[in-house]
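Q: Here's a chain of 194 amino acids. Please give me its 3D structure as tokens.
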Amino acid sequence: MNARTRSAAALALMLSVTSCSAGGQPAPTAPSTTRAVSAPNSAGVVAPVPPPSQAGFAYADPGEVCTRFTAALYSADTRRDAGPDDAYKRAAHFAGGALAAQSPAARRDGRWATWAEHRAYVDTAVEPFVDALQPADTAISARRTVRVTATPLSEDGWRGWTEYSLLDCTLRRGGPDGSGWRVAGYEIRQEGLR
């Protein structure tokens, strides 16, 4: 679901919950004959879990956070990883709590079986990419784009297709994730295979 679809869904939900119509007028309501329900017990509320951290890393530069997130995301190695989602778990050290807690689609990566057959690892190069349309940073949000070149290789000489992509990171700082920059979301744009 892209950001525009999420925004439309959130607006529709908000309008239905607040009984408002798209015209901005509240829907008429009948007088209530029920009693008010008390607020839930605060003991049942779960506090946000802070995201995992990389020891010795300051999270001070949004570009460096995006680069490290991307390098970890593309760090699959069938010789040491239990499955394709281990790379996502490493990338979570640079993500915000909400993104880090998501169940990655990487578990269903169809390339893993071929890579495992060859005992392959992904050779990855990540470099900054200047996006002319990148919005200016604010005190709590930033965007960075990196170019990724990733090739599965094995020690027996097998070589898979090289993937060329741009990865757009949306970064945030503050709140439950702490004062440093964290990847709050990302989008991968394929540039091709060779």
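Q: Can you summarize the key feature?
A: The two ends are 28 Å apart (CA to CA).
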